[in-house]
Specification:
about 220 residues, mainly beta, hypothetical protein yedk fold, 5-stranded antiparallel sheet, 3 helices
Length: about 220
């Protein structure tokens, strides 16, 4: 699972990246570009940027990390399901995600993420995973919108997870679905088969660095 990531890139960097794949960032327009403050630690229920498809390109939206499905009614805090992660194997059929999978996919920008190893609290070791050759990554995500009685309209998102592949399987049995730039359009296309994106090889894409806890060696 993933319950913490980091994002520091300014919006100009994302605008350039989307232009490279001929998928323009059309909203917000250049003259109304917001200042995206760096987020060194994004955790569930935090608000963070996502990118979602528009007819003429993609738009940036700020959403809550912990998906609350469209069918939820009542108070936001009354929603108790742990939906900040979604299993890629079942997202298309699970009640909390199937409508969003079919209609509302998104990209979650990040500069890396964190994993923890060790069983006991005192033995917990925190690791940072960052891209080795790329300027940030995009996680595969789903977004949704619901109406609540205490927080009004809430837009939220979840991060898709898959079985971990080397070398990330040293950290956890699961990892985020991490898209290559050439696959961003395919993920956002809800008519495209997403299954091949779940098995992308990690290769040498990532560096693993211990950031806290007693000195540890990954098995």
């Amino acid at each position: 699972m993933c319950n913490q990531y980091l994002r520091t890139k300014a919006i100009g960097g994302y605008r350039h990246e989307f232009s490279q794949i001929k998928l323009p960032l059309v909203f917000p327009p250049v003259h109304a570009t917001p200042n995206l403050a760096p987020q060194p630690e994004v955790k569930p229920t935090d608000t963070a940027p996502i990118f979602r498809r528009r007819d003429d390109g993609v738009e940036l939206a700020m959403a809550r990390w912990w998906l609350v499905p469209w069918w939820h009614r009542g108070r936001l805090k009354a929603f108790k399901l742990a939906t900040f992660n979604a299993r890629s194997e079942t997202a298309a059929t699970t009640r909390s995600f199937r409508a969003t999978f079919a209609k509302r996919r998104c990209l979650i920008p990040a500069d890396g993420w964190f994993e923890f190893t060790g069983d006991a609290k005192k033995d917990r070791v925190k690791w940072r995973v960052t891209p080795r050759h790329e300027d940030g990554v995009m996680f595969a995500g789903l977004w949704d919108r619901c109406e609540t009685t205490d927080a009004g309209t809430v837009e939220s998102f979840t991060m898709l997870m898959r079985d971990a592949a080397p070398p990330l399987d040293h950290l956890h049995t699961r990892q985020p679905v991490i898209l290559r730039r050439e696959d961003w359009q395919a993920w956002l296309d809800t008519d495209a088969d997403a299954a091949p994106l779940y098995d992308l090889d990690n290769g040498d894409r990532f560096d693993l660095e211990q950031v806290s806890g007693q000195a540890a060696v990954l098995a």
